[in-house]
Amino acid sequence: MTRVSAFAAREEFVIDVGKGPMPSAADNSSPDRLAEAPEALFVYGSLLFPEVLLALLDRVPVGVPTVVDGWRVAELAGHSYPVLVPASSSARGRIITGLGMDEWRVIDAFEDEFYELHRLTTTDGRVCWAYAATVPPENVTAGDWDMEYFSDHYLADFVAGSRA
């Protein structure tokens, strides 16, 4: 079993990454939303930090900078981590590839039911998956998430709370 401790308002939980088939990625209501490991993941918040990926996966997967139109990385009221929400702007992040099924399951458990998987296409035409918010719009601030502020004020505690 892999223990994933999520930070902030999330509780610690345990997942068994070795059991049974998973439902389709389109089944966003299920805690096990992955039928097979998708090819690429768009990350835009805490998963941009190598320290967080290392804490969760015991390695830092390959990633390349990218942009997706029609979304923004928004500040979530009362939380240090961001949400990806539909918008008339663009979201900057990274596409990470080479994740194994066990790693996808760890990330899926880390993101939990607070997020849904969405299939996106980057501005350069790459298809990827991203975890987007399932929160009511009134919980999303008008401001964009500040990565530097997160790094300066929350990253160390976030990493400590994310250790696998």
TrEMBL record:
SUPFAM superfamilies: Gamma-glutamyl cyclotransferase-like. Keywords: Transferase. The lineage of its organism: Bacteria, Bacillati, Actinomycetota, Actinomycetes, Streptosporangiales. Gene3D superfamilies: Gamma-glutamyl cyclotransferase-like (3.10.490.10). This is Putative gamma-glutamylcyclotransferase. It comes from Sinosporangium siamense. GO terms for molecular function: transferase activity. The keyword Transmembrane does not apply. Pfam families: GGACT.
